[in-house]
Amino acid sequence: MTRLSVNINKIATIRNARNGNNPDLVKVALDCERFGAQGITVHPRPDERHIRYQDVLDLSQVVTTEFNIEGNPDDRFIELVKRVKPAQVTLVPDAPDAITSNAGWDTITHADHLRNLVNTFKADGIRVSIFVDADERMVEGAKAVGTDRIELYTEPYAAHYAENREAAVAPFVQAALKAQELGLGLNAGHDLSLDNLRFFNENVPGLEEVSIGHALICDALYLGLENTIQLYLRELAQS
Fold first, then answer.
1. More exposed terminus of the chain, fewer Cβ within 10 Å: N or C?
2. 50 tagged catalytic
3. Distance in Å from the first CA to the final CA of the chain
4. Is 190 assigned a catalytic role?
5. Which of 38-52, 96-110, 144-158, 214-228 has the lowest mean pLDDT?
6. pLDDT tens across 185-194, in order?
7. For the whole model, what pTM was predicted?
8. Which of 33, 190, 209, 235 does the annotation list as catalytic?
9. Is 113 a catalytic residue?
């Protein structure tokens, strides 16, 4: 079954609004694991507007499922990841002022940079995933720099799902097939939800992990965190 990693950035956003520790990010992460999540994802940004660098250190001491740190690999990020040594690092090319991730890497243009990063992290025993668009050329470029996995940027799928789900998923199927051909592991994330997750998982071959934050936390406001995680797991199990 495709694994569910819960992105807890939005929990940190709520906490930071009042500069206290409510909600308690560490407790929420442990609750997510207890409720069935198979991983915890965090995306620290330079301005620490949600996940703080100290949060990553604190979580690294308690998370027992897969810990995935994603972000733009500036010097501070690299130092943090090398210190924590999570199960997985996901390289995302978002600008410091980006509201959220909005594109994958051009793995051809940035091949030398990505190759150096991959070698740096793999030397510390960290699995590396590169965030890419559903483009076979970018998948091939990711393979060429030595990454272990790719994460498909799924916002275009989510945006067009309602109008034509078969057309929306088609480029992701092709990218996944290319990843399989090349021996790359496959993750996916961004705007996946209870509405569109099952169809994506049913149709995209070889999907190992989805990282879901915004939609899941929004659903939890109405449905409760435990129930929501179980609903997402059910969508993955029934695919």
1. N
2. no
3. 9
4. yes
5. 96-110
6. 999 999 999 9
7. 0.96
8. 190
9. no
